[in-house]
Structures are given as structure tokens and as C-alpha cells.
Amino acid sequence: MTRPVSIAGGGIAGLSLGIALRRADVPVEIVEASTYPRHRLCGEFISGAGPQEFTALGLPDLAQQGEVLTDAVWYSGNARLLHRTLPEPALGISRWRLDAVLAAQFTETGGNLSTGRRAAIPDGAEGWVKATGRARTGTSEWLGEKMHYRHLPLEAGLEMHLGRGGYAGLSRVEDGTVNVCALLPAAIGRELTQATLAERLRACGLGALAARLESAEPVEASHCGVSHFQMGWQPTPPGTAAVGDHCAIIPPFTGHGMSMGILSALAAAPALTAWSTGRATWPETVAALRQRLEQTFSRRLRWAAWLHPLLLRPAGRQVLSLLARTGLLPWRWLYHRVR
Length: 339
Description:
By secondary structure, the protein is an alpha/beta fold. The protein has helices spanning 12-22, 51-56, 95-108, 186-191, 197-203, 207-215, 257-276, 282-312, 314-326, 331-337; strands at residues 5-8, 28-32, 45-46, 67-76, 79-92, 112-115, 128-130, 142-150, 158-162, 167-172, 177-185, 217-227, 232-233, 241-242, 248-249. The strands form 3 sheets. An 8-stranded mixed beta sheet has the order 3-5-4-9-10-11-8-12, with helices on both faces. Strand 10 and strand 11 form a beta hairpin. Helix 7 packs antiparallel against helix 8 (282-312). The longest helix is centred in the last third of the chain and has 31 residues, at 282-312. The two termini are 38 Å apart.
């Protein structure tokens, strides 16, 4: 007898896990509080997962749904630091489109998708996986905010702008739209409660970027924000299976968050399949799942946690600027440390 797996949360990780389990003939239900399509706070480009992972989800042509991105440019304040070809192409795709594509694929594989309701599950409940995104914390030093813009020219497929205590990433997504996603000090959000994203970026020292946004056309319905979260490994009660951001959050500058959602799902699927088919107990399954995720992500999380504060400190940005000007910045080496 095959036992069913239930997943709380139908974002990238939850849907990817559901698809992977269905492709292994495991009965799966996903319970999602929202509906599709929807906008979500996200950098909206996939870097570190590609054709192999897309094929594992039964979506070998996923790249055709978005924009293939091949280069990136970095700025410190209003000064350009470097322009580089990416070691491997990235995929720019909005959550509006990606989540809907994954949801359709999940139902086509025979999964049961329930939307518009929240799953109330006790910690450690057997057969349940938490994929509900960022766990809310009591206090946080960060504010995350994103919005789409039309008629916003970019110098590369990806742009990263380092400011005072925060930064913003820009990526081309489908249909000529640009996603602007920022990680800003929470104090700016508290001080500028009625401000636009451009105004908050200007307060973070990114005046040139703010002026570009004010000259573009914002897609107001795409605006999202979130606070009260922490980065790194997330607190998980004993006996609880978790994937995606509910398990670990990598600092956004890496551009690896969406890929970690997919990769964590694919890493978790074998352990959950073993439980479903009676080859493992639930405690054994949770332990195996956690061990696999730690083996997959621990190194990149450590590197990202070390680099993140360096990018936000004035001295760190000065060193970065010096290394970039002299051609000594090991960009590709660092790129692979956080993937």
C-alpha cells in the first residue's frame, strides 16, 4: 500500500516536490492558501538549476516560458563595477508565470491541488511536508520589496545595485517586463511608510537607479513586500519535514533562491517516496531528508552568509571596487561558491 504525502504550500518548492513525487507514482495533495496565477516577492530568475532539473520535473522546455539571461552587471552606489558573462545561462521568469506552469504540470501528473485554504497541521505530523515559504520571525533587520516595470532598459540580463545597507537586483522576465527586487534595511521601511520603491532605493543611496524606475512604467499589481524573516537555516520543530524557504533562505544577492526551491524538492523526493512505499519510518524519513538538504546546501549557505555583510559595509564595497578595477576580483570562483 502506498501512503499519500500532503504538502502545505504550493510555491516553487511545494509544486516541484509534488511533481517529483507524482512522477514516482506517490499520491500527493498540495494545499495552497492562494490561487494561481499570483505575484510573489522573488528575484525571479533561476540560476544554479537548468535543463537537467527542468527535465526531472517533466518540463524540458521551461526556458521557452521566460528570458534566457547570459550576462550580469554590478554597481556600487551609482558607479559601475563590472560586467561579466554568466558561467551558465540563467532563466528570467516571473512567479506569475512559473507558479502557474508548475501548478498545471502537477495536476496533469495526477496530483490533487487544493487552493484558497490553509493547512492547519501539527508539528511533526506524519506524511506532511511544510513548503509554506519564509517562516515569520518576531523581529527582522530586513524589508523585502519587489515590483515589475515596463519600458525599463537594462545594461545586461541581470543588474545588481549595492547601496547603503541594502541592494536591488533587476532581471528581465517574460513579455518585455523587468523585475526589480530589493533587500533594504527595515529602518527605511519604518521611516518611509508611504514611499514608493524608487524613493526607498534613493534613501539607500541608489539615486541613479531610482531615477530610472521613475522614468519607467510600474506594474502596480505586481508590488509585493515582506518583513519579519531571517536568512540561513530556518528553525524546524522536531519531526517536521520542510523544503524550500521553510527549510533555508540564502541571501538574495546570490540569485540562487528559486533554484534552491527546485533543488530542495528534488533532493527530498527519494526520502519521501521511501516513506510512502513503506520502506522507512517517518522519523527515519525526516532525518534522511534533513541530512540530504544539509549535504546539498550547507557550503553555499556558509559562503553566502560570509559574503553578505561584506557587500553591505562601506569598507567591503570599497575593497570590491578596488578588486574589480584592478581585475583581481575572482568573480567566477565566488559565483560557484554560492551554488
